[in-house]
Amino acid sequence: MGDYDDTETLLVKAYKMSEIPERLHWAGSRFMSGVVLLTKPGTSIITRELPSIPAAGDPLREAKQTSGWDPEASQMRGIFMARGPAFNVEEKVGPVELVDIYQVILNILGIEPAHPHNGTWANVEGMMASGWESRPNSDKFNEATRFCITAVPLILLMFRFLF
């Protein structure tokens, strides 16, 4: 079993929907099954028992329902670097989660979230430049964004058919 040869280490933790830890942000998801299995980093669950999933030895087998591991595991950490007028220069902040970055992107683009999310503004506000929140109305930016969103795909389509 590799790094987990001892019998004290659980490789898999099973959670009922009602028991999923809040920090995972999965409890209210309509896409979650009744039971969630969370494995230790470096492990996967493969079964030959479900007829809808090809056997593990099948070279054409595709992984189904796989994801990362516990977000608190050090192997799941990434590096977030940002540059531009919205960010403080040489600012270092503590760990942030992907759900926190979502609101940074929306803030920079001047977009209101379409639905509630699990991000925590306190985790990212330290990286934002002072005055960025009180910037003037971004109508020009929104016009430019709409133009780019429309023009760039059209230009790409033209190049695809012309060349």
Describe the structure.
With 163 residues, the protein is of the alpha+beta class. It has two domains: 1-74, no CATH class; 78-163, no CATH class. It is 22% helix and 6% strand. A two-stranded antiparallel ribbon has the order 1-2.
The computed structural class is alpha+beta
Strand order of the largest sheet: 1-2
How many strands, which pairing sense, and closed or not: the largest β-sheet? 2 strands, antiparallel
N→C terminal distance: 53 Å
Q: Count up the helices.
A: 2
- Helix percentage range: 10-25%
Rg (CA only): 22 Å
How many domains make up the 3D coordinates? 2
Q: What is the 3D shape?
A: extended
Find the count of extended strands (DSSP E, 2+ residues): 2
Beta-strand percentage range: 5-15%
**Helix/strand order, N-terminal first:** EEHH
